[in-house]
């Protein structure tokens, strides 16, 4: 095959043979040249992906597989291993914890009179920059309603331009008066506050709550578990944007109920006791006083009054020391009011009998100490009842000497002199009794204890011990809480109070009969009530100092009564601390208080005259 092409033949009518046409692939001039088909084998190095080395390929695949495995492992950790923890975090982020305010339970006395309750009050705020009238005009309008001087209000308004808290604790009636003024820039904020409608009456028992609604004294502190209802946190679900999800709202009544805390206190008797106590405190310019009335059958307290006291609605205006009930929290030496307890100990021990006689010389020397009767005289041979009538210290020493100091100390421990009475009020003090080693080492310890000195207790503890004499020997627990009642007065819960036997029934009965002669023939004569049989014991004790010894010219006068003797039930104790002036004894200062309280109790409870009761028989008595 040559590269030159044959020239076309121009001879007319002459054809070339097929063989000649095929040979050399010659074409006629009228036909275009045939195109060569494209080569199936591409040119080397063009349009071909580069080949990777096998090592790199394995590395890429390895990285992909490792990534997938790592992702799978992390998913396993999130979904399986850490699932519980993550779900907890998610719930915490989606859940809102709320503690809605639920009013405290009301406190009522034994007759249903309200002593403490929650009520809606208002706080008044001022925003002077929003006043549409002058500050002086706003002050003039508010002053008579708030009972605040207008100049004082103007002074407050000038402090700043907004957010001035003018006053708080406004009643709904006052708030309505302010609203009718339609003053711009004056705002009333509603909230709950504790309210004590009886004011000072019962404050020494109830206590108070502070501005944060927390109990700080009395029952408000000691019984907060009963007063705060069921304070549970509520948990509400919310969506991603923070909106509350209605489907997840709690199906609950928020623990609200209509139960009230009912006390054993009788408000009528409480008022009478307070009035009688105040009268004697004023008469003798005394430091303070207390009156306690207990039902000895079960230990329920009908009244527990301390003076001076405070108004729980305005507790911040009172001294801190007034917030405690000193008849529960303070110790004192009971003096002669403890003598009936010692007589019961001696009777139970068998060292004396009800008809025994003791010789009283008027003076005794014990371990070098001279001891005398309060009257500075001796009474000769006297009966056990006359020992109490005359309140003989010397005779009491002779009686208790018949009991070994070790046995005497053991009996004092059985009475719980080194223990609390167990009252359901906070801050009760524990009695102070010397150690057995000290008590038994010197005769003087037992001697002074025989007439109620050398140890100390709370007034409520003394009432508890005399309650055991009244009820046949049972040491009941003094208490003020009766239980939780509903609006219809039905009792839903009541506490259980322990009791134990400390005296025989016979000895208790004999001592109460002896105490009756103290009122009818002895130092307790000022407590007589015509035709009622009353047992009692006066007491005038030196006042112990805070660092030992006794405070010069300071005394505590007291009188304890059990009545009616024919059916002993009530124990009444009146204590007056540091009366001043002449003739200040238990018989002159405290006994008249107890008499007034018993007269009120007779009227309130409808106690009939005693069988065998006699009219008053005044006689000249020894002082104590």
UniProtKB/TrEMBL annotation:
The chain crosses the membrane at residues 57-76. One of its GO terms (cellular component) is plasma membrane. Residues 103-214 form the Penicillin-binding protein dimerisation domain. InterPro entries: Beta-lactam/transpept, Beta-lactam/transpept-like, PBP_dimer, PBP_dimer_sf, PCN-bd_Tpept. PANTHER family: PEPTIDOGLYCAN D,D-TRANSPEPTIDASE (PTHR30627), PEPTIDOGLYCAN D,D-TRANSPEPTIDASE FTSI (PTHR30627:SF1). This is Peptidoglycan glycosyltransferase. Keywords: Glycosyltransferase, Membrane, Transferase, Transmembrane, Transmembrane helix. Residues 1-51 are annotated as: Disordered. It is found in: Membrane.
